[in-house]
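Human:
Care to share another protein and its fold?

Assistant:
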Amino acid sequence: MARAGKSGGGSGMLQWLGLAFVLILADQFTKVLILGYYHLGDRTIVTSFFNVVRVHNTGAAFSFLAGASGWQRWFFTVLGFVAAGIIIWMLRSHPGQKLFSCALAFILAGALGNVIDRLLYGYVVDFLDFHWRGMHFPAFNVADSAITIGAACLILDEFLRVRHTR
């Protein structure tokens, strides 16, 4: 997929890697707080629709493969590193595409934030718990939020690119 607006590789890419680094720091900082102040299963009711909890996710999104025998830790770790490599290559190739590169930086941060958890703890630390009328959305974290925001920005970037070419 060709993209217009390509600018010099290294220096333009540094701002996106810097953004990813700041997001990783925010993710890891919040997880250290949760690990320091909450035991597994503890929760604090914040509002009628939001709790802070401590959950360990050994699987992927929505606890996919959480019940597997342990191989999933290394599978998702390798997958995260492969994704990070591809994203860095794409950032190097398209640093002038602001929305596209911002989206990639968010996804990179989310992927690496959760990889760090898998390497350090063997699971991902989740703590944001939204619920409504007895239904709970699976708990998630800052890294998961970054991935979601990045994916939404990629979709928006594609809509804008298609609209611009018409």
